[in-house]
Design brief:
By secondary structure, the chain is of the alpha/beta class. It has one domain (2-96): Transcription Regulator spoIIAA, CATH 3.30.750. It has helices at 23-36, 54-66, 77-86, and strands spanning 2-6, 9-18, 41-52, 70-75, 93-96. The chain has a five-stranded mixed β-sheet, covered by helices on one side. It is globular, with a radius of gyration of 12 Å.
Length: 97
C-alpha cells in the first residue's frame, strides 16, 4: 500500500491482494496516516489490486462509515463484480478501471 495526503485528501493506492493475512497491517497503517493528518476525503485507487477478501471489504466499509466522502477509483472488473454482488455501488462512489 502506498498513500499520499494533499489538500486534506488521502489517496490510498492498493496493490496486490487485500486479504485476511494482510488486512490488519493495512488497517493499522491507514489508521496511522489518518491520526497524523487532517483528512476530510479518501480516495482508494484499486488499479493495481488483484484480489480483495471479506476482510478487505470490511476496511472499505469502515472508511466509508468514518469519512462520508470516500471514493473507489480504477476498480478492476473482477473486484467491481464483488462490490456489485454485495451492493457497494449503492453506498459508495465506484469508478471502474
Amino acid at each position: 500500500m502506498k498513500y499520499n495526503v494533499e489538500s486534506n485528501i488521502l489517496t490510498i493506492i492498493m496493490e496486490g491482494e487485500l486479504n485476511s493475512f494482510n488486512s490488519e497491517d493495512v488497517e493499522k497503517e491507514i489508521d496511522g496516516v489518518l491520526s497524523q493528518n487532517d483528512v476530510r476525503s479518501i480516495i482508494v485507487d484499486m488499479g493495481d489490486l488483484r484480489y480483495i477478501s471479506s476482510a478487505g471489504l470490511r476496511i472499505i466499509v469502515r472508511l466509508k462509515q468514518s469519512y462520508d466522502d470516500t471514493r473507489l477509483i480504477r476498480v478492476p472488473e473482477n473486484i467491481y463484480s464483488i462490490f456489485s454482488m454485495v451492493g457497494f455501488q449503492n453506498i459508495i462512489s465506484i469508478e471502474r478501471l
